[in-house]
Specification:
2 domains; 13 strands; 5-stranded mixed β-sheet; single chain; globular; 5 helices; alpha+beta
């Protein structure tokens, strides 16, 4: 809108200010009309963490009426559908793909350190997955490209003593999972979402995706996968969040 000031003399500051004020008012009017149109369509707009994100009533109702392959409702209780993935903060890691290293260690026969290139050559898959945040939003059917965690475990060779998986990330962040749940076929180490490289705010260059638990169990800026004999509650678990984090049981807090 501010392009309309082209041609105004620089020394006519009062006229320039009047034009800018008029342009801002017009821009706000158009924004309000877009807001009203969106709200009238059955969509709720809400501020989450300083950003404007769209809850879709239509998609929420559709998801509530659908079931997963395991028979559970597609949308867990207490969740509403967002149209786009929301960044949830955290201490960001180095986003440069050239610096990325993933350490696979602990109760394994062959500890590994993998680059992004190594991951890209490790039989990557693209899966359509739903993710559910403990704060009450879900994103459905996002396409993630990555390597199955269970394939990486097979590559490293698990020892019989491995019982848990500790996902390690930038800044000392960790999230814990029982081994059998961590090796679910839908759990990925991913570097691409909806056909594009991950944005830094979403964990670039590589993050974990674990769609069957609340989203804090899917660390961004992942640095390691450690197989452990014992359970080790992670960053949020020791701060009062539930150790298991099943969205369908609403395991939000301990």
């Amino acid at each position: 809108m501010r392009g309309i000031v082209t041609g105004v003399k620089l020394n006519d500051s009062a006229q320039t200010r009047r034009i800018l004020v008029a342009a801002d008012a017009l821009e706000k009017m158009h924004a309000r009309r877009r807001f009203i149109k969106t709200a009238a369509s059955g969509t709720v707009l809400t501020l989450l963490g300083g950003g404007l994100y769209t809850f879709s009533d239509e998609l929420t109702q559709e998801a509530l009426a659908a079931n997963r392959k395991d028979g559970r409702p597609r949308l867990p209780p207490g969740q509403r559908v967002l149209r786009q993935l929301k960044p949830m903060g955290g201490l960001q890691g180095d986003p440069r793909a050239s610096r990325f290293r993933l350490k696979i260690h602990g109760e394994v026969q062959q500890p590994l350190t993998l680059t992004l290139g190594d991951l890209a050559k490790s039989n990557p898959v693209t899966l359509s997955l739903d993710v559910h945040c403990v704060t009450g939003w879900s994103v459905l059917g996002a396409e993630f490209k990555g390597v199955r965690l269970r394939d990486l475990a097979k590559k490293a060779g698990l020892k019989p003593s491995a019982r848990y998986v500790i996902l390690e990330a930038a800044g000392g962040y960790t999230a814990n999972l029982p081994l059998d749940e961590a090796l679910h076929e839908d759990n990925l180490i991913t570097w691409q979402m909806n056909g594009e490289r991950l944005r830094r705010a979403h964990g670039a260059p590589v993050r974990a995706i674990n769609p069957h638990h609340y989203f804090w169990k899917s660390p961004k800026w992942i640095t390691g996968i450690r197989f452990s004999k014992r359970d080790e509650p992670g960053y949020w678990e020791v701060r009062g969040y539930h150790n298991h984090a099943d969205p369908w049981k609403e395991e939000r807090h301990a």
